[in-house]
Amino acid sequence: MNGLADYPHLDQIVSAILGAWPEHEMFARKSIDGRSPEVLRSSDQIAGLILRLALHAHGGLEGLCEDYRFLCEAIVLPEELHFRRHGRYRLSTLEEAAREVYANGPFMERYMNGLLLSGVMWSNHAQALDQYLREYLPSLASGADHLEIGPGHGLLLYLAASRPGIGSVTAWDVSPTSIANTRAALDVLGVRRPVDLVLKDLFDTSGAEPPRLYDSIVLSEVLEHLEQPVRALEAIKGWLKPGGRVWVNVPANSPAPDHLFLVDSADHACELVKAAGLEVEHATAFPMTGTTIEKATRRKLAISCVVTGLRRG
Q: pLDDT of 125-149, one tens digit each?
C-alpha cells in the first residue's frame, strides 16, 4: 500500500487487521490505494479516534480486528448471498430485527465493533466520513444548533463537538443502552464541551414546550434500518429551522441483518429526501471498494449515498 507511513494511525489499524487476517490484503490495498491524500488524512484522523476507543474496548485493538473479520465473513457475506439470490433484504420489519439482532447483546457488540473499523477500511465509508469532516461541518454557520439522530459510536458527534464555531451539540436515540455507549465513547475521546444526549423517539412531538429547532441535523446510516424512511425525513423536516439542512448518509444495495429498507441507487436516495418536502442541495455517491459508480449502479453493488437536504421554509 502506497505511503501509509505518512498516516500512522491508519497504518496501525491496517497492519493489525492484516496481521490477524492476511487474506484481506488485496481488499485493503484496493481500498487504501484508491484514496486521495485528502481522504487519507481524514481516514488517519478517524483511525486515531478508533485507536483511542480501542484502548477501552473488550479485547483492545486485536479484539476489534477479530470483530471486523466477523462482520465481513459471518455477518455481511450471508446477507449478501441472500440479496444476490432474491434481490431484496432478508428482513423487512423492525419486529424481526429486534428479535433476531438487537436482542442479541454479544452479537450486537461484535457487529458494532466491526462497523467501527469499516469506517477506515471500506473506501465508501471512508469517503462519506471525509465528506462530512471536510465539507459538511465547515459549511455550518457560526453558532449553528446541531443535532445527530442515532449517534452510534459517537465519532460524527465528536467531530461536530470539536468544531468551535458550532453553537450547541445534541444527540437523540431511542435506546438507553445506545445513549450510554455514546456517552462512554465521548468521555474516552475527551469531549471538552457539553453534549446533550437525549433518550427520544424522532416521531415523538409530545410535550407542553414548543419544539426546539435545529440548523443542522445528521442522520447517518439510519434510514436503512427503518420501515418508512420518508416518514422519518418528514419528521426531521419539522425539526429543522427554515434554511436548516439535514446530512443524510444511507447505503444503497448494502445487505445487513438489520437493514430493512432497500435503497437501490443514489437517485433513489435523493428521491426519498425530495419526497419528504426537502430540497436536495448536494448529493454524492461513493461506490464500494474496487468498483466505479457506473458499475456499482448497474450491478447493484453497495454505494454510500450522501445527500444534503435543505428546508426552504
A: 999 999 999 999 999 999 999 999 9
How much is the average pLDDT of 54-79?
96
Q: How far is Cα 88 from Cα 20, in angstroms, rounded to an integer?
A: 33
**pLDDT > 90? residue 210:** no
Rounded Cα distance, 290 and 87, in Å: 22
DSSP 147-163: EEES-TTSHHHHHHHT-
Domain 123-310, second-level architecture: 3-Layer(aba) Sandwich (3.40)
Burial class (CB in 10 A: 0-12, 13-18, 19+), 100: middle
To the nearest 5 percent, what fractions of the chain are helix, strand and coil?
55, 15, 30
Rounded Cα distance, 268 and 232, in Å: 16
The CA distances from residue 211 to 107, 207, 242, 309, in Å, are: 36, 8, 14, 20
Domain boundaries, the chain: 4-121, 123-310
pLDDT digits 0-9 by tens, 188-206: 999 989 999 999 988 876 6
- Any bridge partners for residue 99, and if so which? none
> How is residue 293 written as a grid cell?
459508480
Strands 214-220 and 196-199: unpaired
**Span 23-36, average pLDDT:** 96
What pTM was computed for the model?
0.95
Task: For residue 234, give the C-alpha cell.
Answer: 418528514
Length of the chain: 313
Share of the chain above pLDDT 90, in %: 92
Q: Which residue would you say has higher pLDDT here, 147 or 164? A: 147
